[in-house]
Each structure stands twice: as C-alpha cells, then as structure tokens.
Amino acid sequence: MMSADRAVTAPKIGLINPKSASNVAVILRAAACFGLDEIVYTGKRYEYAKGFQEDTKKLRNSIPLSAVDDIFSNIPKDFVSVAVELTEGACPLPEFAHPEKAFYILGPEDGSIPMACIKKCEHVVYIPTQSSMNLAVTANVVLYDRLAKSNYEKGNDLIKASRDRNNNTSI
C-alpha cells in the first residue's frame, strides 16, 4: 500500500502455465495484500487443478483472474515487462529498481519461462537464494521487495486495517 500523497499504478502479474491451485490462491492473497488489481495466466493445467478451496478469503471474487492465450498481448501499453527467473545474466532482485507500472511474469512451478518470452521482457530479475523457490513464494518476495523500496503507508491505522479479526495485539 502506498501513501495517499503519491498516486501509484497497481502492478500486474502474468503466470505462465501454472499448475497448482494452491499457488494461485496464495498469489491472489498476495495480490490483495500488495494492491494488485489483476492476474492473468496462460495454459490449461491450472484450469484442471483449480478448486479454490485454498482461496479462503474468496479473493477470486474481487481480483480478476483471467485465462489468456498470450501474456504479452495482455500487457497494457505503458507497462514494463519484468520476467522473474533464475537465469544467467539476470539482475539480482535486491539491486533492481521496480518500474512504477510493472507487469511481472512468473514461470510454471515445474519449469522455466520460455526463452522466447524472456527475450520479449524489458527486464529479467532473479531472487538470490540457495535453491529454487515455490511460485507463490516468489510472487510474494517480488511484491514485498517492490513495497520495501517504495514510499509505503506506515502506522497503526494500516496495521489495524490489514490484520485478521482474531489479531488484536499491540505493544
């Protein structure tokens, strides 16, 4: 969430052939937490796997999740494509300056973003880890990194608005 004095365009996420409904449900939760307003995906595997039992907040009803044939034909003209992939020559995420209008592209849980897609992207970043991460975790790390590098909203009002109803702790 950004501070009210700075208008910010919500980033978007494109998923290449995701297979796990649970990963997509966690990405929906991340979208709600980090202010995304749209997720698109390619491929048919997710269509066969989705059950949405993992979408406990029913975010699919408020954040569009759309099947598309081509990720790149769904990137708004003024958005910047950013592939997130463990690939040689990519920029480490801690050193990356996120574009204001970013369209993040993430690959499948059991593969990589196709090289033809990577070549179309304006940026390619990777998260420096000791092993590959889960798709949903990757989306959360990228979106958190974007938030951490921004002029985000702070304070108790945000905490109170963000937490679940069963959490009422204070220090």
Automatic annotation (TrEMBL):
<keyword id="KW-0949">S-adenosyl-L-methionine</keyword>
<feature type="domain" description="tRNA/rRNA methyltransferase SpoU type">
    <location>
        <begin position="13"/>
        <end position="144"/>
    </location>
</feature>
<dbReference type="InterPro" id="IPR029028">
    <property type="entry name" value="Alpha/beta_knot_MTases"/>
</dbReference>
<dbReference type="GO" id="GO:0032259">
    <property type="term" value="P:methylation"/>
</dbReference>
<comment type="similarity">
    <text>Belongs to the class IV-like SAM-binding methyltransferase superfamily. RNA methyltransferase TrmH family.</text>
</comment>
<dbReference type="GO" id="GO:0008168">
    <property type="term" value="F:methyltransferase activity"/>
</dbReference>
<keyword id="KW-0489">Methyltransferase</keyword>
<dbReference type="InterPro" id="IPR004384">
    <property type="entry name" value="RNA_MeTrfase_TrmJ/LasT"/>
</dbReference>
<dbReference type="InterPro" id="IPR001537">
    <property type="entry name" value="SpoU_MeTrfase"/>
</dbReference>
<dbReference type="Pfam" id="PF00588">
    <property type="entry name" value="SpoU_methylase"/>
</dbReference>
<keyword id="KW-0808">Transferase</keyword>
<dbReference type="InterPro" id="IPR029026">
    <property type="entry name" value="tRNA_m1G_MTases_N"/>
</dbReference>
<protein>
    <submittedName>
        <fullName>RNA methyltransferase</fullName>
    </submittedName>
</protein>
